[in-house]
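Note to self: the last two entries modelled the partners one at a time, which told us nothing about the interface. This time every component goes in together.
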Amino acid sequence: MRRQVGANIPKVDGLEKVLGEVRYGADLPAKEPLCLKVVRSPKSHAKIVRIEMDEALRIPGVERVFTAKDIPGKNLVGTITKDQPILCSDRVRYIGDPVALVAAKTSEAAEAAANKVVVVYEDLPALNHPEEALKLNGPLIHDKGNLLFEFHVIKGDVQKGLRESHLIIEKTYQTTWVDHAYLEPDAGISFLDEKERVTVVCPTQNVHYDQKEVASVLGLSLDQVRIIQCATGGGFGGRLDITIQCLLALAVFHLKKPVKIVYSREEVFQVTSKRHPLTIRYKSGVKEDGTLIAVEVEILGDTGAYASYGPTVCIRSAVHATGPYLIPNVKVRSRMVYTNNSWSGAMRGFGVPQMAFAHESQMDLLAQALKIDPLEFRLKNCLRNGSETATGQTLMTSVGIGETLRKVKECRDKANHSREDPKRPFIKRGVGVGSMWYGIGNTGIANPSTAQMEIDPNGEVRLYIGVADIGQGSDTVLLQIASEGLGIPLKEIRVIRADTALTTDAGATSASRQTYISGNAILDAINYLKQEAIKEAGPLLNMDEKDLFYEEGKVKARTCLTTSLPVREVARRSGKVIKGEGSFDPETTRLDSKTGQGAPYATYAFATHLAEVEVDTETGKVRVNRVVASHDVGRAIHPKNVIGQITGGVAMGMGFALMEEYVPGGTTSFVNYLIPTSKDVPEVIPILVEENEPSGPFGAKGVGEPALIPCAPAILNAITDAIGERIYHLPANLERVLETVRKKKAGNSNH
Amino acid sequence: MRLKDFTSNLKRSDPQTFRRLSLIQTMEITIKFTINGKIVKVEVPPHWTLLRLLREKLGLTGTKEGCGIGECGACTVVMDGRPINACLILAPKAEGRSVETVEGLGDQVFLHPLQQSFIDHGAVQCGFCTPGILMSAKTLLDGNPHPTKEEVKGAISGHLCRCTGYQQIVEAIEDTGKKRKVIR
Ligand code: FES
Ligand code: FES
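The predicted structure of the combined assembly is written out below.
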């Protein structure tokens, strides 16, 4: 059999996607579904005095208007802290908070009725800045207080480190809200299935989480709720939280008729989660010879109206605050605060992209002050096999940061970077690097995956896996792993996935974890399947189990080379389903709650990007010409998929660096929220550094989030290189670039 | 597009049509046009967009709605040889025209070379942008069989793709053009 791992096979869902046959949320067929429309708050903070729906109910075609009173179970959801209502009962906390839900025969009627639902509000003071929200005796957004979460990482003695430093640099960095802008607006259907289960079919990143929330909101047991993931038009973290699931389920629960909801783009912008804006005060100390000895970091994040993944981002940003560098003295304080802004949640990188912007800016500032080449400076300080991280974890293997830096350096040294354009004197060119590290999987907590493999007597081979493929290609990669592990061609394995009635919990498609964690769970299942096959083959071959082994899809005898039985033959002849159930949970330790010390991840991915930019000093426009993206992903199971993640990550990183700025209550469409187009994106030169990870499936780690993280810092450092002045506030849009160019000019003429 | 947005847009841009439409909103009109080579006659409320007609009346859900206001390109179909945003066109405008959608591009057995190239180049991730981009790419290649990279980028610049960073998409289209050269 052809080897699967490392092979660029066609994506398993590619064909139906190019044919336009695959069904996303809005394409799902349902029998005369009722259309749902949500009534939302136009206020950022207010008390709900009353809701009047008589007029709405009079509109022809309207079946029902639901409010919080109709929720039979717990009206609060959230991955970590359950604080977000499905329909607000007494108070709204941001512009877009759901207040009522209309079900009607047509979308027109639903829309018209939603406009006729009258909600009487009484304004409450709105808090729009984290500092303001932290003030004592101010208004509370949630009863337990406005500080959602606080986390510290403390190692060594930072004061001593700073005292011993030859040079200290301290700066403050600011990032803003970013929208996932997945291209498919949230949409889905719900109905009672043949077993009377409330069944929701929708785009999502985690069916088993959705199932728990829907059951809890409806007051049902888990087996009365079924979630099926349909084809999902992107996620990037935005579909880790509950979006439409509970609304759909609530309507079906009461009406017992199929229902459908389709969000408009405006609604997606208004009501789904965002990337957390972080304010990062960063102080670094370095010795005269360029050795980093201390960093002190203060992070303040705005989680908006609800917790969502706020605690996760709070912890992950603190844990990754140092960047991929060896620093003996570290002190990080990270706080996450409620405000009345749009709620922030998970977005590709969980706070690490924001941190990378800060630590990589610091690295360049230090290198420049010390007059050391920025790449040499990173190479001198980067983690190596055997290094200890800021949380006191010793990384024994697969620390590829050095190699990614060397690869990028080769590229940079070979290229001939001219700084000026003789024909266009207003153009300034620059080159910059950015590096990152990223822990694979959830931080210091159990995050297991489970999988089943089976071969039935008629020869069908099946993989059952709860993983949601959101376009990144996990179906393909996990099938490759299964095929390689079993020794059975990929085309002959059927995958059954992401349906709570048929598959078991694989955890979320997030934290770049599915290849590594679910890949391992599949291999574990295969191991059990092999044992099972050997056991069944014994009597068929008249041999003792001990003398048999499994290889290349066959049970073989140790003693006799010619005696073997294909595993499907074993199933057929024994008349039994040969089955294996597997699981995997990466080896981590819980982080100490006071010092943040521990081993939060079993493995880390590393990456370095080099960006080449042109800045138009008259308009402020930045053009990114080329990005060299060097990634240590462990073993690449599907190199082409990995490269696709990298090119996509670079584009999103570029958006984060230069153009994307969501305004709560203001952003409504792609007209006022710009994302990169084919004309904006740079040429991407991907470099795969495959540092084998012994604990990974065939040596693999992960790439989804790492692809984005180093891009913005590389671009920002390149802009600084071009214009000689640094920007500390993302995005570096036209106005900020122009302002910085002017500041530079003014500074020069003052000299 | 939401009806509300559509009508309020129309009210501004074309008050006369708006008034006429408000009168006939409840009625349906019959239109006849060619869809993927076949002539169809359908009844449609005159305020529906072509996108809605395709998706909801003709069951052609391959064409997607990503924004409803002409900003993302996901709804791109070919009308009389030109790529258009089906979310911006009223269904009655299709009267007498020829419309092509992704469903007419190829099938399981005979993929259009572009479809094959998208698969080969890994140009499809979530795939939501794919049908629209394929239709723009097809029009490009019909008029310019061997486009340069820059021409390809220009032809798909009205399409948003959040997953791929466009590189594999551009390569897939460019390569389809190059392969044609070999055949000739
Ligand atoms: S749906 Fe028509 S352009 Fe976005
Ligand atoms: S592949 Fe997902 S938007 Fe293009």
